[in-house]
Amino acid sequence: MGATAEVPTGTARGLGRRPWVLGLLLALLGVGVFFSPILGTVSVSPDTVLRILLHQVSGGALFSDPCAGASVPASGCSGLIEIVWDARLSEVMLAVVVGAGLGISGGTLQGVFRNPLADPFLLGISSGGTLGAAVVVVFRIGVSEQNLLLPLFAFVGAIATGAVILVAARSRFGSVETLLLTGVALSSFLSAVLSLLLLYSPTGSLQVDFWLLGNLGSLDWTQDGIAFGVVLVAGTLLATYGRELNLLQLGPDVAQSLGVDSRKVRVRLLLLASVTTAAAVAFTGIIGFVGLVSPHVVRRIAGNDYRLVLPGAALVGGGFLLTARDLSLVAFPGTLLPIGIFTSFAGAPFFAYLLFRRRGASTMGTP
Amino acid sequence: MTGPTGSALRLRGVTVRFGERTALQDVNLEVPRGQFVALTGPNGSGKTTLLRAALGFLTPDAGSVELFGSEVLRLSVAERARRVAWVPQEENPREDAPLLDYVLYGRYAHLGWLQGETARDREAAVRALRAVGLEERAGDGILSVSGGEKQRAILARALVQEAPLVLLDEPTSHLDIAHQLDLLSRVRELSGERGVTIVAALHDLNLAARFSDRIVVLSRGRRVADGVPADVLSEELLARVWGVVADLRRDPRTGAPYLLPHHLVRPAPSGPGTFLGKGPVHVVGGGGSGAPYLRALSEAGYRVTAGALHLLDSDLETAESLGALTAVEVPFAPIGDEVRERLRTLLEAATAIVVAPFPVGPSNLPNLEEVRRLLGRVPILLVDRPTGEEWDFAGGRARALLAELRRGGARPVAGAAEMLEALAAEPAASASQ
């Protein structure tokens, strides 16, 4: 035997397994997080931003006066620190966390439904979560505990939508098309309810585009922390199911014959993906297509083993949303536009491409 | 195999219903360890349902299924996977994966939570790939290999699963004849070398007879036959369960029985495009007397059967040229029990019987005796015999039988044209089945 375990590596696309790509993605994301606060709605010189960041990260050890040489506003250096650290960096971190949550949810949903077009936005889970969160805002439920109630209601909305999708997927009409159409119908319906709710709310119609198009602004570290905590815990749990998702790709029955409790695992994964999505959208509103695009990018560069796809989709999703934020600020300096506009600009054509490719290729049958 | 005790598989009074339809009806089955069981029966007879019940995929409406002494539904999904492996008829993976990884999926039930595959697991996978002749293809994607290679990879996966029982559901249905033989030979080896118990649903009775120790026949959800291939395979079984008339032969080298399916005696349960023609109509003749009627029937769209005839009889030549199924005896010998049995099968399958004006002697008198058994059950047409010509060489017994047939309702016809008219008037005889 001995050297017989030496086997040729795959040449076909997606067959190779390249775990090191994840390390590269993580490094890139770190660089992105560090440099992204340079961009913002008010002008602060890049070197000042980086000095402030290093000052804060080192606990004040580096650059005892990070604002030296900069045009300091009336509030003094602490005002600048507030802009860079509390406003920009928390915004940057939120972009990464939300993107990561949507990315890993998308990867999970694609695996659970064995469908490359599944995505928390297209399946209506994002809309369900957002609707839940919006209910808290519109009806002014527990104003002082909104940081907790927003995600909680978002969980309820997202999980309820997930349950409907699961029922639709289980019915005897549970083809790929049925699943997507159910999701699109649910998504539209929930968005309509959301719009109606917001238009007639006392807070006024300005909120509508905030919730429907996604927004990263006006958040603080507490909200970041909640989103980060939930996405980290649920996302880590999701990432442990890579092997089960690999086996589910053979079909639920085959997976079960190999030892995966398909029904239990699928329900659990859908629940976790809903929670992750809810945490992502609770403070930001609907941000589309991140969950669709990210897993596909990972498959291309790291291989299609779900043990890599899930963590990879989180990293790519975080990077995707961060890039969207930065591009938005470069293209329209001075304002942070709803972030969902940018993700849809990139995501919708990609969706069309996947749909087209799927039609072109011989269909692999329905699940 | 060490480990759990008891028979590899035991079904006790298993009944499974899907809504109105009963897929399995009170099925009892015990498969001892190490046996290769071929499970067979027509489409919809319950083969797949039985396998799915054995895998714990469905809950029977009544009865229980045990794997090595434990009720399958009480075992955890992982424990089931350690006891029984499955080779499905068709598998459509959604993601490409190298064959080696695909085979390694079989190790899942043996690995702990988050535990990666060890070098031992990978070696086992490579060994399994070698056992199915795919070692060189280990790095190729499952979506890029041929159907036969995919089936072999799935078999390799079942090997590394190390389950003492392997269930195969029509594993050869998408394979050509060479790959069918190849796959089943490998399964046979597996069963022999490793003492693995095999239950394989197989459409092909000849493959089943050739490779299995035991054939279990299901029909409409019931176990209707069970035993060693030589005992189970019979023309009678084929006619009864599949509605197919077939010749049973024996492989001169191995002595194994094999069947030459011929035609249908009743329509297949479903499926469009099965044009069967009318009949079959059985012609009793001999010495060239049956040939005109066989030809006329065949031209009119009837399927025909003939016999019993002696070898070298010109009627036999005609019948065979028309693709008719026949009962044949060696020349000059009286019709023996075996040929008589076959004649009976053909007569019972027929929608009408035509008795040609053949000379009757002691050796072929059983033809008329067998026809008499069917009086009142199918239309019998007696072709008029020319006057003044002696034809009863059986000492009057032939005349007596013919008279008895006439009294019992058999209808005389003057010739081929009148025979066809008479058949057309019999809806049961001429119905396109």
In words, what does this structure look like?
The complex is a heterodimer of chains A (367) and B (433). Chain A is mostly helical and 367 residues long. Chain A has a single domain (90-359), classed as ABC transporter involved in vitamin B12 uptake, BtuC. Chain A contains 14 helices and no strands. In chain A, helix 5 runs antiparallel to helix 6. The longest helix of chain A is centred in the N-terminal third of the chain and has 36 residues, at 77-112. Chain A is globular. In chain A, 50% of the residues are buried. By secondary structure, chain B is α/β, with parallel strands linked by helices. Chain B folds into 2 domains: 9-233, P-loop containing nucleotide triphosphate hydrolases (Rossmann fold), CATH 3.40.50; 278-430, 3-Layer(aba) Sandwich (Rossmann fold). Helices cover 34% and strands 25% of the residues of chain B. Chain B has 16 helices and 18 strands. Chain B has helices spanning 47-54, 77-83, 99-104, 119-131, 147-160, 177-194, 205-211, 229-232, 235-242, 291-299, 314-321, 337-349, 365-373, 397-407, 416-424, 427-430, and strands at 9-18, 21-31, 36-40, 62-67, 70-71, 84-87, 165-169, 197-201, 214-219, 222-227, 244-250, 257-264, 278-284, 302-310, 325-329, 352-355, 380-383, 411-413. In chain B, strand 17, helix 14 (397-407) and strand 18 (411-413) form a beta-alpha-beta unit. In chain B, helix 5 (147-160) runs parallel beside helix 6, helix 10 (291-299) crosses helix 15 and helix 12 (337-349) packs across helix 13 (365-373). Chain B is elongated, with a radius of gyration of 27 Å. Chain B starts with 8 loop residues before the first strand and ends with a helix. Residues 267-276 of chain B have low confidence and may be disordered.
